[in-house]
Write a structure and sequence with these properties.
This protein has about 260 residues and is α/β, with parallel strands linked by helices. The chain has one domain (about 1-255): Vaccinia Virus protein VP39 (Rossmann fold, 3-Layer(aba) Sandwich), CATH 3.40.50. The chain is built from nine helices and ten strands. Helix 1 (about 30-45) packs across helix 9 (about 225-240). The chain is globular. It starts with a strand and ends with a strand.
Length: about 260
Amino acid sequence: MTVISDQSAQRADQYDTHEDYRTYWYGRAYEHQAEVTALRRLLRGTFVPHAVDVGGGYGRLVPTLGRYAEKVTLTDSSRKQLDTAKTHLAAEGGVEIRLAPAGTLPFDNATADLVSMVRVMHHLPDPTDALKEIHRILRHDGRAIIEVANSAHAANRLKAALNRRPLSRNPIDLRSTTNRDRDSIPFVNHHPDTITEHMQHTGFTVERTLSVSNLRHPQLKRLLPTPALNTLEKALQAPLARTAFGPSIFFLLRKTH
């Protein structure tokens, strides 16, 4: 494993002040496996020289990406997250770690074959810079997998219909008023149609989408064991993508211009 600290990195984000982020995933085995399943489905038959995991935290998804790339570079803006990654990924070969925010990636133009960005867009009310950077570092015809917290999921659409109001196409800030006043890290959901327009304007073609974490409900998680949830999830991701059903949408993009 190679660890590189970049002077160009912006200030460490608020994850530096949080407890070990790995604890967030305690009790979330279903959600983790749902995302692994989505990555495997979108990357089936792929093997590339260089993949970059943008905002990948402590490297939760790096072992999965490592099955499809000769080399994986993990980036994050939090030193604490990357320090944890050194331990978490100690047994992984072909991994490089770099300190960098999503909007300023430390790579030359057209040097990555694959970029993933999962659970980052919900911290980006305006994802323009991050999308441009991903586009810049990808080779022509390179692919990106970007996960988006979905403001138009089925439950929100039902609430909007019952209240007889349209769904906003703008980012929805989920923070409390108190946290907004404290200038806490942004936490937003995006409308998939708006994000699709952003991606296309940046120079990407959307090749495929998946609806992910479709069964993420406390009652379902209490009623069904995790293996059963994951079996159902695997069957639902593709068909439910047509209606953007779930709280998370995975986009498979190709750099076309």
